[in-house]
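Reply to dn_fold:

You asked what the input looked like. This is it:
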Amino acid sequence: MHLAFRAASALACLTLVAAGTMTPARAASAPPFEGTVWIGPNIITPASPSDLLSTESVGRGIRTTYDRRSGWVTQNSYLFISRFNGSKPTEIIVNPEFGSPDAATTQARFFARVLGQLPRSCRTQIDALWIHSGNEVFGGGNRSILIHSDFAIESPEFLEEILLHECAHTSLDWDSGGSVEQTKWAEQVARDPGFISTYAIDNPMREDVAESFVPYLAWKLGTASGYTAAQLDAISQQIPNRLAYLDSLALNLTPLIADESTTTPTASISGVEVPTARKLRPGSACKKTFIGNTTTTVKFGTLTCRRVGSAYRWQRLSLAALSASS
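and this is what came back:
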């Protein structure tokens, strides 16, 4: 559930047993990444839109939170309420160690804006942010996200990706009552070539969903994620069934990816964005003049116009087989 990793691990081979655990059974493809938070920093950036509407101080109050430096602590914390488009309000609990209402307000407003940048389906079960000082790793679950501000300062370019990982723990993990069903997820694990990261394979029951969610979003965004074509291809080849399952949940990815009903799909021709005549999906027809151009949809991610036999079709980037089955 946490991001204390970056160590190499031996590759295990997986199957499913009745108890719901994973044990060696067959040769599997080696994970292409060590930890998916660190693949690229541009899925969400400071310039990305946020659903945050307001953050208001509500004074101070006694709250119990977890602090990695000392364990569970009960303190007279600085309290704030943040409100968002598309999701419920969230309580921001700031450690009194920050020393003043102004310093606490700075922390609360900063992290509330980043919280508003996360997909709405990833915020459904976040009741609170716990903000402490200290250079300790973040955490998710308990209907909250644990933040240590010095760790955020140490890796600012990856802050949003770290919070994507933690919000997946909080709102998607089955142990937290999230959207992902354990049995159905296990079925996809058994069908996929392997795990996406060494962190996931080292902690298959605890980390696989969160480790898969960040590359899933990159796969949905395509090259707009800042990932290279090789990285996107590695994702689509390693966990195609996990990707398809997450797609089947119809997660609301606003504001990262706008709702399809509010946007007009377009494709770029010679640098000019041109509205398409029909709703796009893998396998649907595209014009010959669109060859090589791409467009991003909410449901199917980034599609590329390609020639298929004598026809021209929209296909997922490096995912022809998966597109055909969608």
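The first helix runs from residue 101 to 117.
Hope that clears it up.
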